[in-house]
């Protein structure tokens, strides 16, 4: 029996986290994924499923030790975890991994020949006169040779930030570890490009002759492959172990040429381990499902026939200059209380995201996780997409449709920890505590109740690097949001630690150099092989060099999530309006490192969880249930909430970073929290945490509320859409020009310039200002580009949208020019310099 453990929420330091109530194995109700019967799997998805049936047969096959596909002379070198009798077999290996590393020294499988890189402008592929198609562009891009550039000297960080020179010993050691790993990977694995293709050497590998299955499990005493194909007979297909802990079996094709394991068959590996006999899902499995009436998932041999494989039709979009990210969870994206599908999300939600003006969608909970309420953060099968929402082919179709719409697709990837489950996850996979993870307390995260990877292990590096590449290569994701990076980078995991910005907090003995080095390697691999890919790191600590390229000595992320902003808004919303400090707001929004880009957000999925509150709920509370109809009287709480909801989001986008993120539904002030289906849980002390009777009612998104023009939610949605389109038109988030000319604590007014726009915020609860003078950098005529008080956005129409504002010469608020405006209370207005032919 698997004990289904607690929930992982987004990590951080000092930030209050509210884990969801746990669901014990005795009370958990398995989800209906479409698995029906003992030997077959069928998926009945709502909209044109691409793969309608996964079939499992009952065929056995003999193990051929003289496989033509893999010669007996091939060796697997694992310097760590070897018996004394085997020590003589090790001839060489990475010097610094002599105790812990594992090197897989297998010949690379034959790959398709690389096509020549195109020399024409890629735009020409859309010119029908030249005969190019989107499909051809996709094929040609895939054929281009990929090479990770060599490591640099890592010294430019001291030019960027001279304060780092006091910590040269630590930083040079860190970069030395990275360079050494790159050199050893080059020497023993043929380079980072080859090393990151571990999925071509481990797991299930199909060749013309049959199927080879390999698994690294040095702690196991014996192993056999079991499943529907051999009637789960542990004696039918026993595996052989080489001297370095890799188990292997080759199953030749059947006499009719069909594979020994049919597509859709359930498979597991049975091992005799130091902890006893156990059946586990293969670590490199590409798909897994949960059968009705069962808790553990089953691994699925996933190898659909060519005619059922999805073929990508659309090229991946170029990376936009500024990212406007729509954070989404496929399962809860339906307006109905159900688990939504990839197909429905593709057809219903993606067009909505595009219409709202976002240019990227960040999808949570893609990696398979046995506990739905973990929000996808307790991963059990790292290479498998969540089967609750459909098949791998349908996920590919979703991503291809997003690309057709011009949307980047970022994956919320979890490499910071793993599920504690032992039967369907990596924990105790080979019966030992220190297989993929650190042993003892260092390998356990007490707050998340999960296992922590050993980033100093060679095979763990192979596994995680290959995992990142798998999602980019196989599914065409455009990048990642790396979860829990703060937890990775410090041995204290950021728990009960308040980061003050003092550099000694980042470069000392509490830094996990192995983990930071892994992050450098994975960013190096991603950006080297996929130059257009985007990486975002979830770090609350403010680690210096986090968003500096690896060759310059940095960690290599493109963006850092500016997590402090959301926490600051919650802190402010607990205060009276009279106690809001303009300087406090400005400081938090602008407190980021020069030259390191940030993704700003007023709230994310964290604030939407049960036990927490969204901004809309903090502002309007229970009044949201009774006073949101536009044809009914409002209340002071609703009027205040709608006004401040718009202002908070606009000032966050305007000052908070070079990118912006919103969690689905929050754009229109979604009235409900997120509460995953769960049962009652009895704790060891006898207390009871009540469940919700496994209800999906609070595990959905009521998009219909935002679309209903008779509700005030619609005005919030319209404003968010206008805000995104304003940024698309003016590109203010990535403008180098940013100047804060006024933060008046008496008037409660903030004025700043971003690009060619002038933003004016009046946070005062009653005072409106006529003929209010504001500074600007450029002379001319200004017009209103965005007005939060517009009736379309639920405002009171106190401004004339057609009014023109002419500048005066002369310094004001340290600006060379100025103009006069009307600033109503609780409004945000954006002014743009009007060109003669410009339609503002």
Q: Which terms summarize this structure?
A:
single chain, 840 residues, transferase, Immunoglobulin-like, glycosyltransferase
CATH architecture of the domain at 198-301: Sandwich
| Fraction in helix | 10-25%
Tell me the number of helical segments per DSSP (H or I, 4 or more residues long): 16
Structural class: alpha+beta
**CATH hierarchy class name of the domain at 198-301:** Mainly Beta
Could you say what the CATH topology of the domain at 198-301 is called? Immunoglobulin-like
Fourth-tier CATH superfamily name of the domain at 198-301: Immunoglobulins
Shape: globular
Q: Could you report the average pLDDT, rounded to the nearest whole number?
A: 85
What's the story with the biggest beta sheet? 8 strands, parallel, barrel
Keywords: Amyloplast, Glycosyltransferase, Plastid, Transferase
Pathway: Glycan biosynthesis; starch biosynthesis
Organism: Noccaea caerulescens
Protein name: 1,4-alpha-glucan branching enzyme
Could you give a quick summary of the protein structure above?
Its EC number is 2.4.1.18. By secondary structure, the chain is an alpha+beta fold. Strands 12-13-16-19-20-21-22-23 form an 8-stranded parallel β-barrel. A 6-stranded antiparallel beta sheet has the order 26-27-28-34-30-31.
């Amino acid at each position: 029996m698997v004990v289904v453990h607690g929930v992982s929420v987004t990590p951080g330091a000092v930030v209050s986290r509210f884990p969801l109530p746990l669901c014990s194995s005795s009370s958990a109700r398995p989800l209906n994924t479409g698995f029906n019967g003992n030997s077959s799997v069928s998926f009945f998805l709502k909209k044109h499923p691409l793969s309608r049936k996964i079939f499992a047969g009952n065929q056995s096959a003999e193990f051929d030790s003289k496989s033509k596909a893999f010669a007996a002379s091939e060796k697997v070198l694992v310097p760590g975890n070897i018996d004394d009798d085997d020590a003589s077999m090790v001839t060489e290996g990475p010097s610094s991994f002599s105790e812990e590393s594992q090197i897989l020294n297998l010949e690379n499988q034959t790959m398709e020949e690389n096509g020549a890189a195109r020399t024409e402008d890629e735009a020409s592929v859309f010119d029908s006169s030249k005969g190019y198609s989107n499909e051809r562009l996709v094929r040609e891009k895939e054929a281009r040779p990929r090479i990770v550039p060599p490591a640099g000297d890592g010294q430019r960080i001291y030019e960027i930030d001279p304060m780092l020179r006091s910590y040269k010993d630590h930083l040079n050691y860190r970069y030395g570890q990275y360079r050494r790993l790159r050199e050893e990977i080059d020497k023993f694995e043929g380079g980072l490009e080859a090393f990151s293709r571990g999925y071509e050497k481990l797991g299930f590998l199909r060749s013309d002759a049959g199927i080879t299955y390999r698994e690294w499990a040095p702690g196991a005493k014996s192993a056999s492959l079991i499943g529907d194909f051999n009637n789960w007979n542990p004696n039918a297909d026993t595996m052989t172990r080489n001297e370095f802990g890799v188990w292997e079996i080759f199953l030749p094709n059947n006499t009719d040429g069909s594979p020994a394991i049919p597509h859709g068959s359930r498979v597991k590996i049975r091992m005799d381990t130091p902890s006893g006999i156990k059946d586990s899902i293969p670590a490199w499995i590409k798909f897994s499902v949960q059968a009705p009436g069962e808790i553990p998932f089953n691994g699925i041999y996933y190898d659909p026939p060519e005619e059922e494989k999805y073929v990508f039709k659309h090229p991946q979009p170029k990376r936009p200059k500024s990212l406007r990210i729509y954070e989404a969870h496929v399962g809860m994206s339906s307006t109905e209380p159900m688990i939504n599908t990839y197909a429905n999300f593709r057809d219903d939600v993606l067009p909505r995201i595009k219409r709202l003006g976002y240019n990227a969608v960040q999808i949570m909970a893609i990696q398979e996780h046995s506990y739905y309420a973990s929000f996808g953060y307790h991963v059990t099968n790292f290479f498998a997409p969540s089967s609750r929402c459909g098949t791998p082919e349908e996920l590919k179709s979703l991503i291809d449709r997003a690309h057709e719409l011009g949307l980047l697709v970022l994956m919320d990837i979890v490499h910071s920890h793993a599920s504690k489950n032992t039967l369907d996850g990596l924990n105790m996979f080979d019966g030992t505590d220190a297989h993929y993870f650190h042993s003892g307390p260092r390998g356990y995260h007490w707050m998340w109740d999960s296992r922590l990877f050993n980033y100093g292990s060679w095979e763990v590096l192979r596994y995680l690097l290959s995992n990142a590449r798998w999602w980019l290569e196989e599914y065409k994701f455009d990048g990642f949001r790396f979860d829990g990076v703060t937890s990775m980078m410090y041995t204290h995991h950021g728990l009960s630690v308040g980061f003050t910005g003092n550099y000694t907090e980042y470069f000392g003995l509490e830094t996990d150099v192995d983990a930071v080095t892994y992050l450098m390697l994975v960013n190096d691999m991603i950006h080297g092989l996929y130059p257009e890919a985007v990486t975002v790191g979830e770090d609350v600590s403010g680690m210096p060099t986090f968003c500096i390229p690896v060759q310059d000595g940095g960690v290599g992320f493109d963006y850092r999530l500016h997590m402090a902003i959301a926490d600051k808004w919650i802190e402010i919303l607990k205060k009276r309006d009279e106690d809001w400090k303009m300087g406090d707001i400005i400081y938090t929004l602008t407190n980021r490192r020069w030259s390191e880009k940030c993704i700003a957000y007023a709230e994310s999925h964290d604030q939407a969880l049960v036990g927490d509150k969204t901004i809309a709920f903090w502002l309007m509370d229970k009044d949201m249930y009774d006073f949101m109809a536009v044809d009914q009287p409002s209340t002071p709480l609703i009027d205040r909430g709608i006004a401040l909801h718009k202002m908070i989001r606009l000032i966050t986008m305007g000052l908070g970073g070079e990118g912006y993120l919103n969690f689905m539904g929050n754009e229109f002030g979604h009235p409900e929290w997120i509460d995953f289906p769960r049962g009652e849980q009895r704790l060891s002390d006898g207390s009871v945490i009540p469940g919700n009777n496994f209800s999906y009612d609070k595990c959905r998104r009521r998009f219909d509320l935002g679309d209903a023009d008779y509700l005030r939610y619609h005005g919030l949605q319209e404003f968010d859409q206008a805000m995104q389109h304003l940024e698309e038109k003016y590109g203010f988030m990535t403008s180098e020009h940013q100047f804060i000319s006024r933060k008046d604590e008496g008037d409660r007014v903030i004025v700043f310039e971003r690009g060619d726009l002038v933003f004016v915020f009046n946070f005062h609860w009653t005072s409106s200002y006529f003929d209010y003078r504001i500074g600007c950098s450029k002379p001319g005529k200004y017009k209103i580009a965005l007005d939060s008080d517009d009736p379309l956005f639920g405002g009171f129409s106190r401004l004339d949208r057609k009014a023109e504002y002419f500048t005066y010469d002369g310094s004001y608020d340290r600006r060379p020019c100025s103009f006069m405006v009307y600033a109503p209370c609780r409004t945000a207005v954006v002014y743009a310099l009007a060109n003669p032919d410009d339609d503002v």
